[in-house]
Specification:
148 residues; mainly alpha; 84% helix; globular; Phosphotransbutyrylase; VanZ-like; transmembrane; membrane; transmembrane helix
């Protein structure tokens, strides 16, 4: 049962990525602006004298969203592969391949969304996030197997 649930989690996460990518530029910008404003308010409470440039930070929030959403995708895919298959390095390679392929298809999808476009830079950021997710999952999995 956990094998099926792990793949269901992958599919649901991919649907979430698709949902965010399908938002027109204005809706996507509103979401990330809201997150940026929340962080800005929090930072001002903690460090009232901080020199905070909202415009620059908004860009960082948007690119970090790419990174972290694909980090999670990398973890979910590798976990699903590990439950269904034992080849460690091959599973890592397949997980990364799926993530990069999905990142590329996601950018192509954005060509058809009003106000959005495809960026190679975003595929690279997505791929870096997926790579870190796969590596962190593998390291934690290896440490757990040594302890047990």
């Amino acid at each position: 049962m956990s094998k099926y649930l792990s793949w269901l989690a992958v599919i649901l996460w991919m649907c979430l990525i698709f949902y965010f990518s399908h938002q027109p530029a204005t809706a996507s910008s509103e979401l990330s602006t809201g997150i940026t404003e929340f962080i800005e308010i929090t930072v001002e409470k903690v460090a009232p004298n901080a020199n905070f440039i909202t415009e620059n930070f908004h860009h960082i929030v948007r690119k970090n969203a790419h990174f972290f959403i694909y980090l999670v995708l990398g973890v979910l895919i590798l976990h699903a592969l590990k439950l269904n298959w034992t080849g460690k390095y091959r599973a890592m390679g397949i997980a990364l391949f799926i993530c990069v392929l999905y990142a590329m298809s996601d950018e192509v999808h954005q060509l058809f969304v009003p106000g959005r476009g495809a960026q190679v830079k975003d595929v690279l950021i997505d791929s870096a996030g997926a790579t870190l997710g796969v590596v962190v999952y593998s390291v934690i999995n290896r440490l757990n197997s040594r302890i047990l």
